Structure formats: C-alpha cells, structure tokens
Amino acid sequence: MSPRSARLARLSRSVTFSACHRLHSKSLSDEENLKLFGKCNNPNGHGHNYKGRKVISILAPAGFVVVTVLSLQEAIMEPLDHKNLDKDVPYFSEVVSTTENIAVFIWDSLQKLLPQGILYKVEVQETEQNVVVYKGEETIVK
Ligand SMILES: Nc1nc2c(c(=O)[nH]1)N=C([C@H](O)[C@H](O)COP(=O)(O)OP(=O)(O)OP(=O)(O)O)CN2
Ligand SMILES: [Zn+2]
Fold first, then answer.
1. What homologous superfamily does CATH list for 8-19+48-134?
2. 20 to 30 A Cα–Cα from 122, which one of 2, 54, 63, 74?
3. pLDDT at 63 over 90
4. Model-level pTM?
5. Strand, helix or coil at 114?
6. What's the CA gap between 97 and 24, in Å, rounded?
7. How far apart (Å, rounded) are the C-alpha atoms in residues 115 and 119?
8. How many CB atoms lie within 10 A of CB 79?
C-alpha cells in the first residue's frame, strides 16, 4: 500500500492569566541577583497579565475538532492564574520564574494532557516586548 500524504495545519489557542513573581535565584547572592535581575528582583515582587498560547498540529482532511479548551484550563489557568508563582506553584520554588521557565512548565503540563506528538509550540507573552516561544527543544549544558 503506498503512503498517502495529508495536509498538516496548525491550530492556535490562547488564554490570559494574571500572576506575580520575583526573579531571584537561590544559587546567587542578593547582590548578584540584584545585578542580574534589576527591578525584577524587587523583594515584594511584581505582576503581569500573561498571555499563554499553545499551537497544535492538526491533520486538515480529518476534519475533526480537537477539544482544546480544557487542556489550557488545566495546564495554565488552574495552576497559574491569580497566583504568586514563586510561592503558590511548587515547580517554581526551585526554578526561577522567568518567562522561559513558565513556557517549559506549560509545555510539560500540556504534554501530559494532549495526544502524543500534536503539541507544536507554546508561546508565553509577559509584556508587550517580551514573548517566549518553546518547541520542546533540549540541549546539553556544561
Ligand atoms: N530572559 C529573561 N529576562 C527577563 C525576564 C524573563 O522572563 N526572561 N523577565 C523580566 C521581568 O519579569 C520583567 O517584569 C520584565 O519587565 P520589564 O523589564 O519592565 O520589561 P518590559 O518589556 O515591559 O519593559 P522594558 O523596561 O522596556 O524592557 C525581565 N527580564
Ligand atoms: Zn516579571
């Protein structure tokens, strides 16, 4: 039987969540943290209205509608919305709550909820200027 090609489309869906955080690494001194993170190291934190977006791959001809709403609710809204990321979300007790790490957190959460192989990318917009895109890549660090 010869293989048939299928058109692959991407479907994107986003939610907005509000959260506060402080950029602070336990492996650095207070001085080093202040130098590295500046105003984002403010001891009492600061807040953002984040936009989280997932993009999934869909086989266009199949024509079925993937139920996409629930996974964003479970992967983003329930754990992160109206939370202090550093204090309310166990993942960020040891991981600095940068937008990059929030994107990784969301990626890992969505992977557990979605059918294998369909998650294409996660985007997290922290401010008008700061947007992180994560596609599940890993690299070796020394
Ligand atoms: N690599 C990263 N650097 C920074 C992150 C991050 O997630 N990854 N995040 C921050 C802060 O959380 C901060 O709140 C961003 O605010 P700010 O620096 O004010 O950013 P804006 O784009 O809104 O404004 P500018 O001051 O014009 O840059 C910092 N760094
Ligand atoms: Zn911030």
1. 6-pyruvoyl tetrahydropterin synthase/QueD (3.30.479.10)
2. 63
3. no
4. 0.93
5. coil
6. 8
7. 8
8. 18
**Atom number, ligand 1, closest to the C-alpha of residue 130:** 22
Q: Where along the chain do its domains lie?
A: 8-19+48-134
What is the residue type of 129?
Q
Identify the residue whose tokens are 């299928």: 6
Q: Render pLDDT for 67-109 as a digit per residue (tens, 0 to 9).
A: 566 789 999 999 999 999 999 999 999 999 999 999 999 999 9
Asked whether the beta carbons of 107 and 99 are under 8 A apart, the reply is no
Largest CA-CA distance found in the chain, in angstroms, rounded: 66
Q: What pLDDT does 68 receive? A: 62
CA torsion angle 80 16 18 108 (round to 10): 20
What residues are in contact with ligand 1 under a 6 Å CB criterion?
Answer: 23, 40, 46, 98-100, 126-127, 129-130
> What sign does the CA torsion over 10, 15, 16, 17 have?
negative
- Taking residue 130's Cβ as centre, other Cβ atoms within 10 Å add up to 12
Catalytic residues: 40, 82, 126
